[in-house]
Amino acid sequence: MGWNIRLKIGLAILLFFVVLAFGVSWLAPVDPSAQGSYLPYLPVSADHLLGTNALGQDIFWFLTESVRNSMILGLTVAACTTLISLAVGLVAGYRGGKTDRFIMLLNDSFIVIPTFPILIVLSSLVRGRAGFPAIVAILIAFGWAWNGRTIRSVALSVREREFINMARFSGCRTARIVVQEIFPYVYAYTVVGFINSILYAINIEAALAIIGLSDVETPTLGSAVYWPNTYSAIMTGNYVWIGAPVVAISLLFLGLFLTSTGYNQYFAERRGHS
Amino acid sequence: MNLLKYLVSRFATYLAVLFIGITILFILPRLMPSDPIEQYIGSLAQESSVALTAEQVADIRKVLAEMYGLEGSMFEQYVGFLRRVFTFDFGPSLSAFPKPVSEFIAAALPWTAGLLATATVFAWIIGNLIGLTAGYFHHSRWAAVIETVGVLIYPVPYYVFAIVLIILFAFLMPVFPLTFTVMPGPLSLEKVKDIAYNSALPAAALVLAGLGYNILGMKSLSYSAKEEDYVTYARLKGVRDREIMYRYVFRNAILPQVTSLALSLGTIFSGALITEMLFSYPGVGLLMRRAVGDGDYNLLYGTVSVTIVAVATATLVIDLIYPLFDPRIRHR
Amino acid sequence: MKSNATHVHGEAASRRETVDISLRDVVGTYTTVRGTVNAVDGVSLDIAGGGIIGVAGESGCGKTTLLKLLYGNVEYPLSLTRGSIRFNLDGMPITHETIRRYWFRRIAYIPQSSMSSLNPVIRIRKQFLDRAGYSQDNVFQGARGRRQQRETLERVRQYLRELDLPVEVLDSFPHQLSGGMRQRVMVALATFFHPDIILADEPTTALDVVVQKGILLLLAEVQEALRNTILIVTHDMGVHYQLTHRMVIMYAAKIVEYGPTEEVFSRPLHPYTKMLIESLPKVGDDRVRQGAKGKPPSLYSELRGCRYAPRCPKAQAICRKQEPELAELSPGRRAACFFPEE
Amino acid sequence: MPRTILNVEGIHKIYSLGSFFKRLRINALDDVSFSVESDDPVVISLIGESGSGKTTLLKVLLRLVEPNRGRIDVEDRPIVAAGERTLPDDELLRLVQPIFQNPFEAFNAYRTVDKYLRDTAVLVNRLARGHEAEGAIDETLESVGLHYGDVVGKYPNQFSGGELQRVSVARALIPRPKLIVADEPVSMIDASLRMNIVNLFRKIKQEFATSFLYITHDLATAYYISDYIAILYRGCVMEFGAAADVLRRPLHPYTQLLLDSVPQVGVKWTAREKMSDLETTEYAFAGCKFANRCPHAMPRCRSVRPAAIRPKKGREVYCHLYAEPRDQTDSEAVGVG
Fold first, then answer.
1. Which of A156, B269, C257, D182 could disulfide-link C270, Cβ–Cβ 3.0 to 4.6 Å?
2. Where in C179-325 does DSSP place strands (E)?
3. Interchain pair B247, C71: CB under 8 A
């Protein structure tokens, strides 16, 4: 069973960004966030692939650094939320009953409560300082709920399947049953959830940065939009400065989205014929 | 499922959301190393050329603590905070002292509610209709085109739509205003037009951002509903195509979409806040932005509390409407 | 059905007798990821006269596919790749192409699963009316549409009373009815227009025996009153014995035997039919039974000769080389076997 | 003194449905008792329609569900008593093993089937991984007509239903249990192949001295294979006794109705029966649960739960029709048919 078109395109886009972030970005000749390294407003050329901005930074190198930081943030948040959602979802789904009802009440609350205003409160309290760890913590605190919900509902339905009883009478205890029997069924959803969490984390941090409430001194995809926005790059006609990060964000999100839905489809097809 | 059981469980969720949201809001600043009072005094000392005496500082501290609800034990503070939220009294605004925060919020809330409700309902209905058509006629070429469009716009975040719309329609083709400017005055046809003209871009950004989600969701739901036995049977009964599409496919596929709308309201609201900030639209989002800029904690807590209450209530309303769509909950 | 049934069905009763179904070399093909497979592979048969016709066979033999082809329910991945299917209803020919126009009014269908075959979100009443063509749309046509709808609903009520069904089911949603009641609603839906032919696909498989008996006897009564043709597909040989007048036995996409039910059971011609009947245990019968040896051939592979030959105790060299015709061995009895049972 | 193969005593199981305010209590098992004593292994059939409680009883016996009251013993060893688990889990697995209805549901589609066999050999039989476990698996597979090579590394979808059910039987046999509980084990298998599995049960019963609890709605295979039979309706035993006796000379009107409704080859149906659809209220009846549908129902049937009447040794029928005349205060109300 081959990869479908979505998965192919999505992985190709992600590969491009991974190479950009973790391969190419180390080659930057100077610290990309240092201001005044070059003359401002240099046009696109071989030396400066996307030109330079009003602050005398190379737009291309700044962008690679931004992509890297955003991806590190996304991967960190996604890894933690995936672990939490797996634990929560499996416990709620497998235990059922009162445990399940309590966890789901908590879970639904975290889905319904809008994350963004809470983050605004947080960032106003720390005033942009000590930004990243606190933001990561809040993103994790609010990020597990969607996946937790999905994993729980899968676990809940698998729990009722006959092969769970079969495993029990083959001598398996609860931990073994969860790992051997239930995990294969939630595995695909976990992968999809992981990718979606990357998107979620990068997205919210970027939103926060764009309105100046994240740690804008650290290059991220959000601060890459914040600076041209603050310096009115639109009015001064420096479209590459604002355009490049906007395109990068859209393309990265498209890649993540295509990979997650493509993988979902791929797995569903495989399940259908295996 | 029993209707009563359903309603009780939804209401429990509502209370849990309120409780957890408000509690987080209460705990969060108390976990932070920085103290809003010291921060305020610090900034005050910087701004004023005259040095403050120790007595003055102590006075300010006392006043601020009272105003922020930071007096007494943790429990007393918590009860006080809950009272503030449920009486809709968040104390005076600091940046526009002594005008109460609730007045600002009362002025901003209708704008946000109007924009958000219009855009969400619009995106939901249009998205579901397009999705239904694409899912029902999934073999046609148009369905593939629609799906591609959906895939392309779904992952694009709110702020990108906002920025792109600003560049396109406020700079390159300046047909819409860059910032929101509606003259105060009594409601007239003229004013409604003015509001519509000024709200067009933020509304468009919100609709675009919500459209992809609804199109893709409805497309896959109606596609799978079409495979259900009751649709096959209706077809074999000779029921007309249009009737199958609406009364069989749509009526069933819409149910998960209602639930999913309720669950995604928080995300939609977050998106609306940032859109308002980028368009300077005079809603709760902009107010929140101003509160952060001015270090106006009462205003900030007021707006964020109202946001949480509003989202939870809107979710509850959708959940309460749900049984109208699903007879299996209405009639046991 | 109550005594007034003859009155209601008087007009219907007079026009039957000349129904026949004619299959000529029918091949139905599924397109799957493993390639194409002929689930019905060259079936020819003429069924004339009314009555209840049973189609028997085990899983994968093609009986449900045959029913789909007959009903014209041919959608991807199934296709009719060869042959012709014709109905003759009192001199009116209906072919594979035109059948859709007669669905439910003259040729009706009863599906296997009544739970999933009823729309869960609309009332039973509307699921009657939407076929009758008097749905909400007609209400908008004003007083005439509303009156027509009322009249149709009254006829539906009347019909349910004839079938001994509580009229209240009309105002229920499917989930409020028991499995047996839902399946009786399906029977009522399928017979409301007094169709000439009813095709039923395992109509009682999911039901308990007591409820099953009620549904089957209801079908038998409907057939007696309407004097029409009912074609019933089921794997349960007991159901065939109780209900059907004639039966078709299928094996590996082919018809292997056709004849009056009583005779098929008392004197099966095809070794497969014989094995099928003899493997059934019975209450009160203490003989040791043997299950069948081997399994049916995969339809994906190249098949030569009689498809039952590898499992047949009587198979000779010719059985493996040449395919036997479904030949008429005695009046009304056909079997596809070189060495039929005596 | 013969052994008690299976003793079920006063089992109650109540499920609560509905809301916090309007509770609907379903007596899924309402005082179920029967007992089989024998020196030789036996097959006991549990017959009932959907909603009869036969699956709940199976779950109680396998301790997947806890009863509200009552006790169960297998081979003179108490499994549950008064809601308590009276036998350690690992001992239960060596005493009782299940076979499930749909073999494709009973094996995880993502795991190879031999893993279940190995788990059973290693975790239940405490055999060492490798040769020791594989030897035991191979030996057991041979007794169901398969070889280790036929199953190793294969996923469930690579088997036919009949083959997979054999693997399932082999797995249940590995611990050499005293009782195998088979829940509708042949209902998913084609009729002509069904007897292969049923005959396999007969062979195993003799070879391994294993008793079977065979749960089914199919009276014909039950007649063919069982030594004892219990007829359940709405959570109550209606009739119990030697299989041939119960099915050839049914006493309870419900057993008679059931036998009348089976579409059996050779005996044509006559009249249409009075039908009752599944009624949830029947679970709550104070008297006989069959009273609403019973053609012989008397006034007391609706108010008094009939006690077990023993017309002869080893036969029990829960019906007022067979009560001693002196108990029968309203015998003139109806003629006994």
1. C257
2. 197-201, 229-233, 246-251, 254-260
3. no
Q: How many residues does chain C have?
A: 342
pLDDT at position C51: 92
All domains in chain C, ordered by first residue: 10-244 (3.40.50.300)
Cα-only R_g, chain C: 21
User: Residue C23: which H helix or E strand, with range?
Assistant: strand C20-32
CATH 3.40.50.300 domain range(s) in chain D: 4-226
A138: CATH: 1.10.3720.10
Whole-angstrom distance, CA of residue D252 vs CA of residue C284 = 18
Q: What is the ipTM of this complex?
A: 0.86
Show Cβ contacts of residue B299 under 8 Å, excluding neighbours closer than 6 positions: B90, B93, B94, B95, B101, B104, B287, B290, B291
User: Architecture of B101-169+200-331 per CATH?
Assistant: Orthogonal Bundle (1.10)
Interface of C to D at Cβ within 8 Å reads 58-59, 177-181, 208-214, 216-218, 221, 235-239, 241-243, 265, 275-277, 279-286, 288-292, 295
> Do C216 and C243 touch, CB atoms closer than 8 A?
yes
Q: How many domains does chain A have?
A: 1
The set of residues, in sequence order, having a beta carbon less than 8 Å from that of A233 and lying 6+ positions away, is: A53, A54, A239, A241, A242
Query: How far A133 CA lies from chain B's nearest CA (Å)?
Result: 12
Burial of C269 (0-12, 13-18, 19+ CB in 10 A): buried
- Helix, coil or strand: residue B178: coil
C88 class by beta-carbon count within 10 Å (0-12 exposed, 13-18 middle, 19+ buried): middle
Reduced DSSP (H G I as helix, E B as strand, rest coil) percent helix, strand, coil of chain B, to 5 = 80, 0, 20
Sketch the domain layout of chain B as residue ranges. Answer: 34-87, 101-169+200-331
3-state DSSP call for residue D223?
Answer: helix
Residue A30 lies in a domain: no
Assigned fold of D4-226: Rossmann fold (3.40.50)
Q: Is C71 on the interface with B (CB under 8 A)?
A: yes
Which residues, in sequence order, are bridge partners of residue C52?
Answer: C230
Phi-psi region of B58 (alpha: psi -120 to 50; beta: other; left: phi over 0): alpha
Whether residue A239 lies inside any domain: the answer is yes
Q: How many CB atoms neighbour CB D152 within 10 A?
A: 17
**Assigned domain for A32 exists:** no
Residue A82 lies in a domain: yes
Smallest Cβ–Cβ distance between D111 and the set A165, A168, A180 belongs to A180
| Closest chain B residue to the Cα of A117, Cα to Cα | B304
pLDDT tens, chain C, 342 aa long = 443 333 334 444 444 456 689 999 999 999 988 889 999 999 999 998 889 999 999 988 999 999 999 999 998 889 999 999 999 887 888 998 899 888 988 999 999 877 789 999 999 998 888 766 544 454 455 677 778 888 888 999 999 998 888 999 999 999 888 888 899 999 999 999 999 999 999 998 888 888 899 899 999 999 999 999 999 999 999 999 999 999 999 999 999 999 999 999 999 999 999 999 988 899 988 888 888 888 889 998 888 899 999 999 999 999 999 999 999 999 989 999 999 987
